[in-house]
Amino acid sequence: MPEQEMLLVQLDRYWECFGCGRVIDDPATAKDLEKAGMGWGVGIACPKCGLTATKTAFPGQRFRPLFEMVVECFQLKRAILVLILAQTVFEAMLGDLIAGLLFRRDCPDDIIFGITNALRDLDTTERLIKEITQKEISKLFKEVGFEDIRARFGRIQSKRNKFLHSAKQKKELTIDDMREALDFAYDTVDAFAALYSEHPELRPVDRTQERYEEY
């Protein structure tokens, strides 16, 4: 299987349970969930909590076009776009984490949007997460096996900036740079799945779950 297509396969690997908040990584259950409850997984027991509550694919639908664009740009050999999109996906999923934390604290939607829209860099985002949770996100990723995820983000950012902003010493991006960004996007899915499975209290709130009952 071509390496870029592995990322698309990864998008069909995980489901999240609205009952316990954990991410399900079970191929047999995933096949059943695709057909159950009109795509909402109702009636299929979660292998982690046993509930037959609503379930949905992870990452959520709003992130999937970004991952698909990473693959498309890789196929077109648009290296700078692959790097930018890989960064964007990671930042967007962190922003979604913050939005969920604020929503659980009864923060109004317009304030949530204002805060997440004002986050201009990863350092600020990480500080805000620590202020809200008293936990360092880099340490949480380390606990679930992704201790280098922050450093990898930094390397991709550095390569992007050198390409875009170093007029005198412009460094052309290579296929290896593209592969590094593609692998980072792939691991972003794994990292957040592992994080939310271990710490369901951090999982962003999906508003659609309010419309479905547990069975």
Can you describe this structure in just a few lines?
The protein has helices at 3-10, 27-35, 64-75, 79-104, 109-118, 122-133, 137-143, 149-165, 175-198, and strands at 14-17, 23-24, 55-58.
Identify the notable features of this structure and list them briefly.
215 residues; mainly alpha; 3-stranded antiparallel beta sheet; 5% strand
Describe the protein in words:
With 215 residues, the chain is mainly α. 58% of the residues lie in helices and 5% in strands. It is built from nine helices and three strands. It has a three-stranded antiparallel sheet. It is globular and about 55 Å long.
Largest sheet: 3 strands, antiparallel
Low-confidence stretches: 207-215
- Oligomeric form: single chain
Number of domains: 1
Q: What is the element string, with H for helices and E for strands?
A: HEEHEHHHHHHH
Question: From the helix content, strand content and strand pairing, which structural class follows?
Answer: mainly alpha
| Number of extended strands | 3
Helix percentage range: 55-70%
Shape from CA axes?
globular
Provide the spatial order of strands within the biggest beta sheet.
2-1-3
The amount of beta strand, in percent, is under 5%
What's the helix count?
Answer: 9
**Which radius of gyration do the C-alpha atoms yield?**
18 Å
Mean pLDDT across all residues, rounded? 84
End-to-end separation: 39 Å
SSE diagram, text form:
Layout: H1 3-10, E1 14-17, E2 23-24, H2 27-35, E3 55-58, H3 64-75, H4 79-104, H5 109-118, H6 122-133, H7 137-143, H8 149-165, H9 175-198
Antiparallel strand pairs: 1-2, 1-3
Helix pairs in contact: 1-3, 1-9, 3-4, 3-9, 4-5, 4-6, 4-8, 4-9, 8-9
